[in-house]
Design a protein that fits this description.
Subcellular location: Cytoplasm; Nucleus
Oligomer: single chain
Protein name: RWD domain-containing protein 3
Shape: globular
GO cellular component, one term: cytoplasm
Domain RWD: 1-93
Structural class: alpha+beta
Radius of gyration: 20 Å
Keywords: Cytoplasm, Nucleus
Number of strands: 11
Length: 245
């Protein structure tokens, strides 16, 4: 399946997830993100590859091979052909990089600090279509395997996410470019009032969230306790109190 969204000046971007069956005794779920520039197909798309069953190095090899194939299809629509090609040749590509990892024991080998576990704290000004907005955020977090909290306290709305840095970046793209809310006239609109408060690598003192949850807090003290429990006291102190001013 895929998400389709339309940035005003950057062409079309969409996400596709495909499963390659019986690859080295393991089904491999590939998450592909294609960013098609305005002058596509005269220019090859930017491609991002992620998979819980492959190492980071293997994902990079898959990306490189897809870009090689894309250059062979310049000036003609190519995304469908690229998907078919990788379904047929994935086994050969990753054999050159190593074995497939089981999802529950995915190795961190080949994962640099840049691509480790990161954390993102966002502030939203408001949600007019709250129920729909919340469902959308929950779905994005689930699809990108991000954990954390969507937090409401009075007029404060915060989104705290943890996960692979590439997934964090993909989430930001979706948040900025998708029509997630409605304007004052009820027409669907993009998020224009979002602030990125913090984007940083998860440290040893930080507790890893195991799930993504939507929570409401009646007092600032309750919200502060959520941050403290996660080892994020300094994050709370630096970014949350100023929002009350």
């Amino acid at each position: 399946f895929f998400f389709l969204y339309f940035p005003e000046t950057h062409g079309i971007s969409f996400r596709i997830q495909i499963t390659v069956k019986e690859l080295l005794d393991t089904d491999v779920l590939l998450k592909l993100l294609f960013n098609l520039p305005v002058n596509y197909p005269a220019t090859v798309p930017d491609i991002s590859v992620n998979s819980d069953q492959l190492t980071r190095a293997q994902c990079m090899d898959v990306k490189d091979k897809l870009l090689e194939q894309a250059k062979k299809h310049l000036s003609e629509p190519m995304v469908h052909d690229l998907i078919l090609w990788i379904q047929q040749h994935l086994k050969d590509v990753i054999k050159q990089s190593g074995t497939v990892c089981n999802e529950k024991t995915t190795s961190s080998k080949g994962t640099s600090t840049e691509d480790g576990i990161w954390m993102l704290l966002l502030h939203l000004d408001h949600m007019r279509a709250k129920a729909k907005y919340v469902k959308t955020v929950e779905k994005w977090a689930s699809d990108l395997r991000l954990t954390g909290r969507l937090m409401f306290m009075g007029k404060i709305i915060l989104i705290l996410l943890q996960g692979d840095r590439s997934s964090i970046k993909d989430y930001l793209i979706l948040q900025k470019t998708s029509k997630v809310d409605v304007d004052s006239s009820g027409k669907k609109c993009k998020e224009k009032m979002m602030s990125v408060l913090c984007e940083t690598e998860v440290q040893s003192q930080h507790k890893r969230f195991q799930t993504f949850e939507v929570k409401e807090y009646s007092t600032l003290k309750e919200l502060q306790k959520e941050f403290e429990t996660a080892g994020l006291t300094s994050l709370f102190s630096e970014f949350v109190p100023p929002l009350l001013k």
